[in-house]
Design goal:
It is a single chain. Helix content is 79%, strand content 0%. With 90 residues, it is mainly α. The chain has one domain. It starts with a helix and ends with a helix. The relative contact order is 0.10. The mean pLDDT is 87.
Length: 90
């Protein structure tokens, strides 16, 4: 089940990465009033690892998935959300 999940995540990521130019164009339009084009392009380049090969990008995404499983930040966030869900306003 875990391997199936990882396979679907990486396949989805690759679809997005391979269409990154269209996504960058859309982001430029959507965020034109908020950020300079250079910043948008830089963020997209980083998000899709466009300065790396597909194999390197997939390896990085796989590592991020694996590290997310044991991430202290993720565990803290989940505990915080659980606690805030149990607190009822007066």
């Amino acid at each position: 089940m875990w391997q199936n999940f990882k396979m679907r995540v990486t396949a989805s990521y690759m679809v997005l990465r391979r269409n990154s130019q269209a996504i960058v164009q859309i982001a430029r339009i959507l965020f034109a009033d908020l950020f300079p084009n250079a910043q948008i392009e830089n963020e997209m380049m980083h998000a899709f690892y466009l300065d790396r090969t597909e194999e390197q990008a997939l390896s990085r995404i796989d590592a991020l998935i694996e590290s997310g499983v044991v991430s202290w930040k993720r565990m803290l966030k989940n505990v915080t959300h659980e606690l805030s869900g149990n607190i009822k306003p007066k």
